[in-house]
Design a protein that fits this description.
With 341 residues, the protein is an alpha+beta fold. The chain is built from 16 helices and 14 strands.
Length: 341
């Protein structure tokens, strides 16, 4: 475990109780100072609506910045007030640092000015297992997402270890992450081949409740059944994207199951589940797809007309009501039969 010692000039500083220091400092004192964000499950993003308003405040009314800002909260291993140098010195590891006020830090690290001050509090002696809970409580004005919480406690490491660097960089694992692929949607996709249930039954769960998938991972951790899909995360995402986005495939399917150039997510889940029926097995405890992805793509292409026929037989009742269609047993049973022929 690596450690970092940080010192900040203070205007005022006091230890209100054992292990709890409160200080004020010029916002310019935070410019280019690196403080870890490991304690905060929610990482700052320049897209956050408050970032622009804080920059404007610093530029137009710096003297009132502290009054309008909640400040920065830090968890550290230890901290002291050095009255001779007028510095607060604290030590943190990679799991500690800022637990609240990450966007304030993000702004001041680049735009801090001498005319504005900010309040900083430092807590020490906090057990690691309480870090996520405390951070969640401190961020209660906006509920911490399940994805951010799971990422913070390391429950997505198996995904990061199982995919290519290219795919990993495209995945958004927590709030403020830059990836374009939401990790929750990725898990909905790979859940379709989760063991113990059929792909069709898994697709129902994926379609109806992303929260249940994330909840299972939180409760069962590495014993969650979805972890056993780790060998095919990349292939599952490739096949799912082919079904949703391939333009040649779009020409074979009915327009009603598309929104713009993308197939509706729920329809894609069940087509994905349909083509994977009886094409997985368990080897050494992990799910293996026993058919190549290219062959599976060809099967989807070939079965497009049969899927269209099943949709047409549902009648006009579901036209313009895709969610109702996907939730119907008639549609689900039809997809199941089409791909088992």
């Amino acid at each position: 475990m690596s450690w970092k010692t940080i010192s900040l000039d203070y205007l005022n500083a006091v230890e209100l109780e054992n292990g709890y220091i409160v200080m004020t400092t010029k916002t310019s004192a935070l410019k280019d100072v690196v403080i870890p964000l490991g304690a905060n499950p929610r990482k700052p993003s320049k897209k956050n609506k408050n970032v622009k308003s804080m920059i404007t405040q610093l530029e137009n009314d710096p003297s009132n910045f502290r009054k309008k800002n909640e400040g920065i909260s830090i968890i550290a291993y230890k901290a002291v007030i050095d009255k001779e140098t007028r510095k607060v010195i604290f030590e943190v590891n990679e799991r500690q640092g800022i637990i609240n006020g990450g966007h304030t830090y993000f702004v001041l690290n680049q735009h801090g000015v001498a005319d504005a001050t900010v309040r900083i509090e430092i807590n020490t002696g906090v057990p690691d297992e309480l870090t996520a809970e405390i951070a969640s409580s401190r961020n209660s004005s906006k509920k911490l997402s399940s994805e951010s919480e799971l990422n913070h406690i390391g429950m997505f490491e198996w995904i990061k270890e199982s995919v290519s660097p290219e795919l990993r960089s495209d995945i958004s694992f927590h709030e403020g992450d830059d990836g374009s692929i939401e990790v929750g949607e990725l898990l909905q996709v790979v859940n379709i081949i989760s063991p113990n249930k059929s792909t069709i039954e898994n697709a129902k769960r994926s379609y109806n409740s992303k929260g249940a998938i994330l909840g299972s991972l939180k409760n069962h951790k590495m014993n969650a059944s979805i972890v056993r899909t780790r060998n095919h995360i990349e292939e599952m995402w490739e096949l799912y994207n082919y079904i949703r986005n391939d333009q040649d495939l779009k020409e074979r399917f009915m327009p009603m199951i598309y929104e713009g150039d993308q197939m509706y997510k729920g329809v894609a889940f069940f087509i994905l589940a349909g083509v994977l029926q009886k094409r997985t097995e368990i080897v050494d405890g992990y799910v293996i797809i026993n058919t190549s992805i290219e062959d599976l793509k060809k099967m989807v292409h070939v079965k497009a007309d049969a899927v269209n026929n099943k949709i047409m037989r549902l009648g006009q009742h579901f036209v313009g009501a895709i969610d109702s269609m996907v939730a119907s047993d008639t549609f689900v049973d039809g997809i199941e039969v089409v791909f088992l022929k």
